[in-house]
Amino acid sequence: MNIYLKVSNATVFCNGHLALEIAIKALGLTGEVITTPFTFASTTHALINCGLTPVFCDIDIDTCTMSISKIENLITKNTSALLPVHVFGYPCNVYAIEKIAKKHGLSVIYDAAHVFGVEVDGKGIGTFGDVSMFSMHATKVFHSIEGGILTYENEVFKKEFNLLRNFGITGPEMVAITGTNAKMNEFQAAMGLVNLHYVDEEISKRQKIAYMYRKCLKTIHGIKFLEDMPNIRHNYAYFPIIIQENDYGLTRDSLYEKLQSYNVFTRKYFYPLTVDFDCYKSKFQCNIPNSRYIADRVLTLPMYGELELDSVEKICQIIQDIYLNIVS
Ligand SMILES: *Cc1c(COP(=O)(O)O)cnc(C)c1O
User: How far apart are CA 227 and CA 63, in angstroms?
Assistant: First the structure.
């Protein structure tokens, strides 16, 4: 695992979410943590479950990751860390985040659930920040049925992570800290080891699919998508499109339903924003116009290694036909 991810240390867990909570605990975070609402429930829940106050930073429209220029305004004397999310296989601006964290003495934990195998300038994405959490849930690019990994360059965390995932037990008659049960089991580990042989093949198949989507979609008005970034190895975890209803003629929700009638099943991912969940509604003050813009317009198209390139062309043709029916 260390070798594939190009990291110095990796500890495995039963799932990504508990790994994230354990990272938060081990770093001893307090008060406020700056994060984003354009993520899976897990990121926000982890902070709340650990008794912390999430402070929501907006995302950039072009990358869907934390907006660097908006972070510093949110830092207060109570801020202890940043918890940015690498989204869809696209990394955050890790260098800028490192700079801000250093300047203000903040810890950095990345939610790296989407970026297994991603590299920045040839370095494993998990080498950035203090700790990164990868998920190996069955829905991810690489999976161990369920599973999580924490990666970290500083070896001091290893002991604490091992203790926290196993009830804090230090000996047959000794329990040192309040831990939990977050151990990865052997069956999960076996599945992960088998799948590790196929992950590069899976990523290269997905790359071809992503390129085909881009080729077929680029001529359709009002459909935007993310491009590859320079010096990044992407993993093509998802293929999100942004539907600009003024140009396309239909809203995201209408396209979502129309595609279903053609048996094309897409996901509104991430929608709703975590701050709009029933459990968090109106609990947090936040200024997040870009997050709202993307959450209302994003759709992730089918993406898996076995998806035929012909099917990709068909899906794009359907999106084109729907557009033509509207404009004609
Ligand atoms: C999948 C996911 C998680 C949670 O991982 P699990 O392994 O399912 O617990 C956290 N954050 C993001 C962004 C995810 O996509």
Answer: 9
